[in-house]
Amino acid sequence: MPDHRIPFLTPWLLPWASLSGMAVAAETAPVEPLAPLVVEASKQGHTLDEMPASVTVLEADTLDENRIHGLSRLSQRVPGLSFQPIGQSNLQPPVMRGLSAGPTSFSSSAVLLVDGVPTLSGFGFDDSLVGVEAVEVLRGPQSSLFGRNAQAGVINVVTRVPGDVLRADASLEMGERQRQALRLALDGPLVAGVLYGGVAGDFTRQDGYIDNTHTGSDENARERVSGRASVRWTPGESTDITLRVSRREYDDGGSDWGPLIGPRYTVASGTESFDRSAIDAVSLNVTHAITPTLTLEAVTADSRVRDRVRQDTDFMPADVVRLARDYTLDKLSQEIRLSGQWRGADWLAGVYADHDDNALRFSFKNPMREGTVQAAMDNRAVAAFSHWRVPLATHWSLSAGARVERTRAQIRSMLDGQREADWTRFSPTLALHHQASDHRSAYASLAQGYRAGGYNAFSPQANALFDAYAPEGVLSAEIGLRQQWPQYQASLAIALYYMDVDDMQVQQILADSGSAYITNAAKASSSGLEVEGSYGVAPGWRLQGSLAFNRTRFRDYTLGDANYDGNHNPFAPDVQGSLGLRYSHAQDWYLQASVLGSSRIYLDPANVNESPGYTLLNLVGGWFIGDAELGFYVNNATDREYDAVGFASGTTVLYSPPREAGIRLSYHY
Known about the structure:
It contains 5 helices and 40 strands. By secondary structure, it is mainly beta. It has a single domain (7-668), classed as Maltoporin, Chain A. The strands form 7 sheets. The protein has a 22-stranded antiparallel barrel. The longest helix is centred in the N-terminal third of the chain and has 8 residues, at 10-17. It is globular and about 70 Å long.
């Protein structure tokens, strides 16, 4: 039998088990209660306590304190969220509550929204989080509000809204392997009371940690630059218009890959590997209050992901095995919605449409063959949705919503001409919410979500496996509880859920070319428990943490002679969590230690190749000098190794990063 012991739980499970007791016993001075957190992703201005769902909100200060300067680092604080280990900057598919999507489906198991700009694929699923107000993570199916691919949840990035107050932030980091990072954000009034503007950007470069013994250079250097700008116009008290543009560029070396046999962090590649990808986006947000209780909102978004990758996969001087991607993914979307109140109920109704135009070019070489395959994918969707929150009695409310969405997928391939398929999905949600007091709430919900169907872009039509694959459906039941103890600076949130997955999309790799195909060959179930909270242990001391248990297993999954029933879904950890302790000495200095952990994950449906479980220790500290701060950081202080051995169908090793230390100088105005 496999050994399922989770050694990293021992150091920090007991403190969380006794959190409630500690809060009752603590004798700390009462503090001023914080203003309620408004969850922008609710689309109705609901506060966190009013949300009948499992939600984590990380505000700008929290992101900065924990050095969360990219989406992949959100898993440090968000239970039930991780990312597939790929080792490429522009490709990091999310894993939420055990559900994930293969990159070749050009879909994701969760939706990323940045100021209303949607990303529904693992390609371009990234943001530098510079100039950000908050990040909201909604777990569980959200398809009734957000449509396809929100089957496991939504990550909503809310950037700063420029206003009458001038704000400025700047930071400079220097660290090991010649790391240099500069982050800037500035926003404020252009014409008082009418016109406002903001800019934000970052630049990061760092030498790689993989040595190329053939060229004498490092193989996986990283260089990224991003920027965003916004102009906000308020022509009247009832109208708010914001135009935003952003761009993110990568100029990276090779992936974090190496050979199965040989010294660690060493390759001898004679073929240059690189990732020169870019993400562009522009959005227009218009809000108009028709009456005090009726609001019209419209979001227009246009985005482009340019994925340019070449990777040597034999790791030898001769050009024997390599792959390359040249993808352009364009998305245009429009959402219009009305929201208001009627007889004590909050309501929302809207329409949505989008158009994806993807140009794909995949090249490969191996000892048996060399080739290039091209395809064009044209996907369209239209939807109508509504959501209501109705008070039932004192402290009780009922939330109900539904979305009808029709999608059409079309593919034009050099292999087999043009094909087309369409689907219509109904995604309802129903939730009961109980607000026992200002600081305690509970909910129970039922929801359906789905991931879009589509075509395999690079597979021959002659094989019946490569017909269109259908949408993947999820039915979820969840109960949750939130509790705050303001006098003890403590909070706790618990969610328990079960999800049934039908027509599950699973990915297989073709051995001769390395290309992959998707089929609806499985069913699965996902169940779990999520806990997160914080506690003011003593004056100046703060404990914060999260813990997620998940069990995602295949049912009825056979492929040829292989039977995967009961196996783990790839990339889904059974347990993950974090625990951080921070001490702040007045406004003089601070020190924080964080322990992050995950159980092992499997890299394939056969559960043969795996990445081991790990426990990481991160340290940060700093001194305040007026509005400036001088600090330090240490990532992976114990230099823990957790390489994914057997990545890419058992052919490579995906290296985990080594320990890294550095210093930081920042300024806030």
